[in-house]
Design a protein that fits this description.
This protein has five helices and five strands, in the order H-H-E-E-E-H-H-E-E-H. The protein has one domain: HIV Type 1 Reverse Transcriptase, subunit A, domain 1 (HIV Type 1 Reverse Transcriptase, Chain A, domain 1, Roll). The strands form two sheets. It has a three-stranded antiparallel β-sheet with strand order 1-5-4. A two-stranded antiparallel sheet has the order 2-3. It has helices spanning 12-28, 30-45, 98-101, 112-118, 174-189, and strands spanning 49-51, 69-73, 82-86, 148-151, 160-164. A hairpin with an 8-residue loop joins strand 4 and strand 5. By secondary structure, the chain is an alpha+beta fold.
């Protein structure tokens, strides 16, 4: 996309439209509804998102972005059967999306071949999974207006506006941010020999 067109426009309309589509699905799939509500409730209880005060809702469209969201079900998952995914590629009224204006980031994941070689180096190998890895990394407050969502757990209630406070799925730099935070944390905890 031409750099002169990389200006965010209104993203609230698309985010609200998708929320209403999700609510229609809730009417026909109670299990999906309960899982989705539970996921979003946990998101808020863990402090991974916060309600935007009414006085802060109206800002210049170029200085905020509403992420449409939808649920992805993975029945074979041992932890979370439903994950809410945010769409940073949803176009605003200018045609640009948040992913369009985010910088491209390098892949800093370890090379698979290098990882396999490490298995041959030591007699015992430990592996681990970081629970909610992306959500362990806080986003600077100045950037959270670009990670807004609309949500309500019932169509009978008014739509609420939230800011996501942690790295989230759906943004093109999320993997880089999570891995960079892990590298930084690991480098601080390595004892000097």
């Amino acid at each position: 996309m031409d750099d002169s067109k990389l200006k965010l426009g209104n993203s609230l309309v698309a985010a609200t439209r998708l929320l209403r589509c999700i609510e229609r699905r809730f009417d026909s799939d109670n299990d999906f509804k309960q899982r989705y509500i539970s996921f979003m409730r946990e998101y808020q209880e863990l402090g991974h998102m916060m309600i935007i005060p009414p006085a802060e809702i109206d800002v210049d469209w170029s200085k905020s972005y509403y992420l449409p969201h939808h649920g992805v079900i993975k029945e074979d998952s041992t932890t979370t059967k439903l994950r809410v995914v945010y769409d940073g590629s949803s176009a605003t009224t200018t045609g640009a999306s948040l992913n369009d204006i985010l910088l491209d980031t390098p892949n800093i994941n370890a090379d698979l071949f290098e990882i396999l070689l490490r298995f041959r180096t030591y007699p015992i190998v430990f592996i681990a999974d970081i629970e909610k890895m992306y959500r362990q990394v806080l986003v600077h407050h100045d950037d959270t207006d670009y990670m807004r969502i609309v949500w309500r757990d019932s169509p009978d209630k008014p739509i609420q506006h939230f800011r996501l406070l942690t790295v989230t799925y759906g943004l093109k730099n999320s993997g880089f941010l999570a891995m960079a935070a892990l590298h930084k944390a690991r480098s601080r905890n390595i004892p000097k020999q």
